[in-house]
Amino acid sequence: MPSKMSNFFRNMSWRNYIVYIAFIFVFIFFSIYLSDAGFLTAGNLMSIARQTAMITIMAVAMTFVISTGEIDLSVGSTAALSAMTTALTLQAGMGIVAAVIVGLATGFIIGAINGLLVSKVLIPSFLVTLAMMEVGRGIAMWITGTAPVPILHDTYIFLFGSGDILGIPVLLIWTIIIAVIGFILLNKTPFGRQTLATGGNEKAALFTGIKTARIKLSVFIFTGTMAGLAGMLYAGRLEAGRYTFGQGDELSVITAVILGGTSLAGGVGSVIGTVIGSIMIGTINNGLILMGLDVSQQMIVLGIILILAVTFGKKSKST
Amino acid sequence: MPSKMSNFFRNMSWRNYIVYIAFIFVFIFFSIYLSDAGFLTAGNLMSIARQTAMITIMAVAMTFVISTGEIDLSVGSTAALSAMTTALTLQAGMGIVAAVIVGLATGFIIGAINGLLVSKVLIPSFLVTLAMMEVGRGIAMWITGTAPVPILHDTYIFLFGSGDILGIPVLLIWTIIIAVIGFILLNKTPFGRQTLATGGNEKAALFTGIKTARIKLSVFIFTGTMAGLAGMLYAGRLEAGRYTFGQGDELSVITAVILGGTSLAGGVGSVIGTVIGSIMIGTINNGLILMGLDVSQQMIVLGIILILAVTFGKKSKST
Amino acid sequence: GSGNDSTNGEGGSESGDTNFTGSIKINENISEEVEIKSEGPKGEVATSATSLELTEEEVKEIQEGDYTAAIAMHYAGNDWARAQIEGLEATFEKMGIEVLAVTDGQFSVEKQMADIETILARQPDILVSIPVDPVSSAGAYRQAVQEGVHVVFMDNVPEGFEPGDDYVSVVSADNYGNGVLAAEILAEELGEEGDIGVIYHDADFFVTGQRVEAFEKTIEENYPNINIQARNGIANPEDGESVASAMLTKDSDLDGMFVVWDVPAEGALAAIRSAGQDDMKVTTIDLGTNVAIDIAGEGNIVGLGAQLPYEQGVAEAILAGYSLLGKEAPSYVAVPATRVTRDNLLETWELVYNQEAPSEVKSKME
Amino acid sequence: MSQIALQMKGINKAFSGVKVLKKVNFEVGKGETHALMGGNGAGKSTLMKILTGVYTLDSGEIIIDGKSVEINNPNDSNQAGVAMIFQEFSLIPKLTVAQNIYLNREPRTNLGFIDDSKMNAETQRLLDELDLHIKATDLVEDISVGYWQMTEIVKAISNNAKIVIMDEPTSTLSLKETEKLFDMIDNLRKKGITIIYISHRMDEIFKVCDRITILRDGENVITERLSELTMDDVVQHIIGGKLKRTFVWEPREVDYTKPPLLEVRNLQSGDKVKNVSFDLYRGEILGFAGLMGSGRSETVRALFGIDKIRQGTVCIDGKEIVVNNPMDAMKLGLALVPEDRREQGLILEHSVKENMILPILKKVSNKFFVQERKVSEVVKDYIQRLNIKTDNEDKIISLLSGGNQQKVVLSKWLANSPDILILDEPTSGVDIGAKSEILKVIRELADQGKSVIVISSEITELLAVSDRLIIYHQGTIANSIPRENLKAEEDVEIAIQNV
Ligand SMILES: Nc1ncnc2c1ncn2[C@@H]1O[C@H](COP(=O)(O)OP(=O)(O)OP(=O)(O)O)[C@@H](O)[C@H]1O
Ligand SMILES: Nc1ncnc2c1ncn2[C@@H]1O[C@H](COP(=O)(O)OP(=O)(O)OP(=O)(O)O)[C@@H](O)[C@H]1O
Ligand SMILES: [Mg+2]
Ligand SMILES: [Mg+2]
After folding, report:
1. Can you tell me the mean pLDDT for D119-128?
2. CA–CA distance from D85 to each of A179, D148, D149, D171, D401 (Å)?
3. How far apart are CA A87 and CA A241, in angstroms?
4. Which residues of A touch D78 (CB under 8 A)?
5. Which pLDDT belongs to residue D222?
6. Ligand 2: does its nearest atom lie under 6 Å from the Cβ of D298?
7. Looking at the predicted structure, is the pLDDT value of residue C3 above 70?
């Protein structure tokens, strides 16, 4: 019993490290086991980085939402819609600047609607963002009647998709930029502090003069906008807007955040943990494909690794 | 601000009624608007009942999990796996009793594993059940290499799928049985009280002699078993086991529960609310298809109705 | 779709009551000679869709019936489905048949079953549908049959269903033939030798299964110097990129690749670009906009086997008309597979979609 | 009194139709320490929540420094220089002490980022200045509850509050910490800070306050200089009736010749309980006295199966028992009223009824179902017996006043009619009238042959009920003193301090 009580608090500490340990473990395992299959090649590592970029970017922002004790299920749909609006803007020949503005604005607006409904109308965020998940993807399907919108704009494709700068994929650069911004925002600014306070004890935060409603609105807008960016990156990478982009991403994103040590109950958040969590899942997926497993086997093994990673981290802590 | 504080508590009350008001509203609207399209025919109402049966059954059980402050994302996969094991048992000619036992046991075991990992190993339920969602579906794919398993057992199909007893679909009968059991369990038994207490304040519950770990284990087992039953009903209705059954059901199930007034934070739960929530979503889906809307339009309208339903309920309350 | 409908008559396509007069056939530009390689669900030989026709009188008779139809797709979110629905809707309109609803099963058997049950409340005369799974969706279709609905299938038939008794006919896109075409094009481009990878659909799904089977069989039997070195499965179309890039990591010396349909092929293209494998040759099936742009721009995709979904839709509508008239319908009709390479891209686009290629494709051709 | 710092005039407040404050007037002078007293549910906290913007008033006026102010939210109140040390705390557990103290006004670097090092250094300086032995970088959830209080006070003064409200600040403090708090109050007073001090403890009020305002049932009773009043006057005004002679000890018969009911030998648990042995006899009320952290709570937690017993034996009726969890303990006839009612005692979002019946679910159920009729009977009975102030039995418990919440926790366990009742700070936050009722209930139980252990930091109270006192010192038992050997509080204090 006492161990139960104290575990409750100790959770915090294991959560802070487990994902790093698990990641290193997974990485070393694949490096050895798949040494012949090219796991450790620069090319493969870059492709892991590219494939996880969108999830990581959305997850960094989601860390804020979850830190306030809320949730956002609409990120995948927002990404899809933003990919569509960006692609349509480019198709209309309005240029890259307009396209970027439109793409980000799409995310911003969805985030703002989510945020207002959660913080002002006080509807549970699960319901709000689930509804928005439907509406967003519905609109993304509907604007072109499910047709994909090709992107032929080379600069756009370079900057938001397949470009390399000094050998580093632009997608990785975007990931790093957002991760750094997220880290600083959460750990070094009053806004981050207020976010954690809002999630830690909303009443107390309110009483300390923190406008918790505004904080919640802001984190939803941030997440919406980052989902918009992720959508633009999907569009750049696949050279098209398509309404199916990002389907199911909400679960991957939330998993990355939780794996990274952020608590669904709010009040605790780790951007670095989130980034590692996201990359770890990407690495496992990559490794399992390289091992030549079936989809079914991949699913089974991924699930087991997730559980083991967390369990193992716990055990090593309580000794 | 003061209204914010008190809204926090008032949430409890609007949540208790909003779903009923919204449901009545939706129902009346479709009855009038779709009077020519056969919405109100007995056949159509029975189809709604049949189509929502599995979600409702899983949602009733999920109400318990969410009431303890946990979550179960693995229900859809559990249903798929249980449909497979049931179908395989029937295919092997082992008879309906064996099939039922195997199907329920499949759910029971998955629920027990979830429950143990959450309550004993103390891993966050979101991660545990997300991992189980992968593993469960992975196994369901893997046992037959994605091939569906046809069911030719007429009695089974009658009892768990397409049968009618005195003009009432068996699926509706199953739904009613489980809803009644769930209602009594949550509201009339010590177990239900202990479930709500565990979700309301785990420490206080523990101090009151409630074995919260055992309660959590029990609710996961209950949910797993009910997901098993839902899988058996899928199998009966579709006359086969197939690994894709129940994909995405976790979100529908959780939505029904939350719409019904159960709080994700735990401590509050309403089985009747859940049932109405589930039927309401089923009714909306049905009505929108009858209206001849595209999937994209259906998604948009469903999302908007969800938000309106909740907002409208709130407004009517605060006047 | 309107443009160059291959109908022998004149008429507007305003909504409401049709005033179309004339006979209805599928596009005459489709060669009648192409061999149909897929076999019917009962092993029957295919009847070519080119032989179907509703005469002017027959059309008129149908128009007077004020019939209604419902379309239950397995999935409605790609170019193929859209073209198929357009073909159906346009043809039904000519026949004066109102389409009550188009549903999207989103690859879920239970959703599709619910969809069908629901639209039966509107008592349509005709149901055109592609089952998500032939094994587990029989129940809903059986209910439709019992209610006297004329059922026409696309591509696949629920288990235990008998043509004539239970359903009118099934119109197939000759997926097998498309798999063969994809193999042949890839083999030609590789000079009949080299190592290739196959990205298949890791699911029990009739249509995609046939394609891969045809592709692999063709390569193995006809091109002994081509070696299928890597095989990886995808569960969802979004997996194209991650699977392809892992494949390229492991076997960096692949010369060619076959991807089971166009959407994952787009992801594979992204992976190939990142890996810098500019001379990789890829074939796939289905002429989506983005793969068409890649073909036009002389990218990695060297060609593909295309279905003719619009015409398939037309054929299905015609067969529904047969059934309404009590006219004997062939039990298995196939719309031939079409070989698409850069040379015939613009022409086949029109054949596939019944409209001109979009400007993006055309501009890349120049 | 030279200047008026705060005036609240004709304040009315009702919650869903129930009037809680009726035309209350409240006036505090600058630099004075003003006591606000009244029974549980009299409306003290509500009045202060209006001042701090948690609730808005229905009608009335607030004047601060001669200016009429409108307070609609906590920010308005902060702006006006008011800070409240809450009865329920307003700290963020997962942030550090420094982060809490500087929340929403963090020092910035030139780049606009939070200057953590400056913030930590500044906080540490404040803490050291006040002789508080905690680190600025400790997480609040890791420090003892007593220090939460201190952190709140530091937060208030570092925010330059002119009026500091303390709502039952000592209810979670040890003697030593209480002393420290009084020093702090002295300090504040010297700085000209006005303090509004809410408490149920008479001695404290007379020790630190200049004037007093007493409320009863939401109405003004009296505002007066404390020097003009005796303790009996105050009590009388609070309970509004004749003074019951409450805290007077009456010798009781305990048969010490019979074997003890509970025998604890060489108990070790956690790092606080090092070696504890004692006996508890049938019908005996045993008081636990000691400093905070001396291991009293930990001892009873171990006995109740919450913490693991590392070593030692526990016997009931001479039979050794094994207790692995509270359920086991309950089966053996034990009950524990925990020290922290909000964390350990109550499910705040649940109703009075639901909270009360949790331990007795079995008793109010037949084989399968909870019997609502029985539930209602029990609940009504206890609401009456302990005089719990609630609109009805379905009221959400967090809406009850603090003292009434405590009464619910108590009745929850009384209802289980245990053989051995353990009470850890049972009267924390309970008003003077109810305190005597609770003490009476304890005596009645003992008279029925039940055994009771009482842990309390109020020595007056311990002396009033105990048949025997055990003095704790650093996880061991230093002494066991029969009540009749103790004459005055000082005797106990000496026993606690000088072991
Ligand atoms: N938000 C609320 N809703 C309904 N009733 C409330 C609310 N807040 C307080 N009350 C009621 O108002 C009355 C006064 O409560 P208050 O907390 O002010 O008492 P108090 O004087 O502080 O008592 P205590 O000494 O026990 O803390 C109580 O009966 C309480 O139940
Ligand atoms: N140094 C500390 N760090 C963390 N928590 C502490 C510390 N000291 C005390 N506490 C906590 O403060 C509370 C009261 O202290 P504790 O129970 O140890 O004292 P006690 O011997 O029971 O004395 P009392 O009951 O008179 O306060 C307990 O919940 C305990 O866990
Ligand atoms: Mg109070
Ligand atoms: Mg204590």
Report:
1. 91
2. 38, 10, 7, 12, 16
3. 5
4. 209
5. 92
6. yes
7. no
Top pLDDT among D263 and A311 is at D263
Closest residue, chain B, to D345 (C-alpha): B204
Label residue B16 by pLDDT band (50, 70, 90).
low
Indicate which residue's Cα is closest to atom 31 of ligand 1: D400
Give bridge partners of residue C198 from the DSSP assignment.
C231, C258
Q: Is ligand 2 within 6 A of the CB of residue D139?
A: no
- What contacts B120, CB < 8 A, 6 or more positions away? B213, B217
Mean pLDDT of A22-37: 91
CATH 2.60.40 describes domain A15-313: no
Ligand 1 surroundings by CB, under 6 angstroms:
D 15, 20, 38, 40-46, 389, 399-404, 431
CA-nearest of C102, C80, C79, C94 to C7 is: C94
- pLDDT band with cut points at 50, 70 and 90 for residue C265: very high
Enumerate chain C positions whose Cβ falls within 8 A of a Cβ in A: 76-79, 81-82, 202-203, 232-238, 241-243, 245-250, 252, 263, 266-267, 269-271, 273-275, 288-290, 293, 358, 360, 363-364
pLDDT at D91 over 50: yes
d(CA B12, CA B14): 6
Which of A188, A201, A203 is the closest to D113 by Cβ? A188
Q: Are D402 and D169 in contact (CB under 8 A)?
A: no
d(CA C265, CA C276): 16
Q: Which atom of ligand 1 is nearest to the CA of D47?
A: 18
Mean pLDDT of D337-363: 91
3-class DSSP state of C271 = helix
Report helix, strand or coil for C342. Answer: helix
What's the pLDDT score for residue D246? 64
Confidence of residue A37 (pLDDT cuts 50, 70, 90): confident
Whether C and D touch (3+ CB pairs < 8 Å), yes or no: no
B25 CB-near residues (< 8 Å, 6+ apart): B309, B312
The CB of D296 under 6 Å from ligand 2? The reply is: yes
Residue D96, pLDDT above cutoff 80: yes
The two structure tokens encoding residue C256: 């060619």
- Pick from B195-199, C249-253, C314-318, D491-495: least confident: D491-495
Q: Give A83: exposed, middle or buried? Use CB within 10 Å, 0-12, 13-18, 19+.
A: buried
> What DSSP character marks residue D477?
E
Q: D251 pLDDT exceeds 90?
A: no
E-only strand ranges, D326-448: 334-337, 420-424
Cβ-based neighbours of B180, under 8 Å, separated by 6 or more = none
- The distance of Cα C51 from the centroid of its chain, to the nearest Å, equals 19
Q: Which of B4, B132, B310 sits opposite A127 (nearest CB)?
A: B310
Which whole number is the average pLDDT over C36-43?
Answer: 75
Which residue CA neighbors atom 25 of ligand 1 most closely?
D40
Task: Report chain C residues whose CB lies below 8 A from the CB of A238.
Answer: 241, 266-267, 270, 290
For residue A88, count CB atoms less than 10 angstroms from its CB and return exposed for 0-12, middle for 13-18, buried for 19 or more: middle
Q: Is the pLDDT of residue D294 over 90?
A: no
Q: Does the pLDDT at position B11 exceed 70?
A: no
Q: Does A237 touch chain C (CB under 8 A)?
A: yes
Contact call for D94 and A12, based on CB within 8 A = yes
Which ipTM score applies to this complex?
0.88
Give the residue extent of every domain in chain A.
15-313
Q: What average pLDDT does range C301-323 have in this prediction? A: 95
Mean pLDDT of A216-226: 98
Compute the CA torsion angle A248, A252, A255, A256 (nearest 10 deg): -160
CB contact under 8 A, B238 and C137: yes
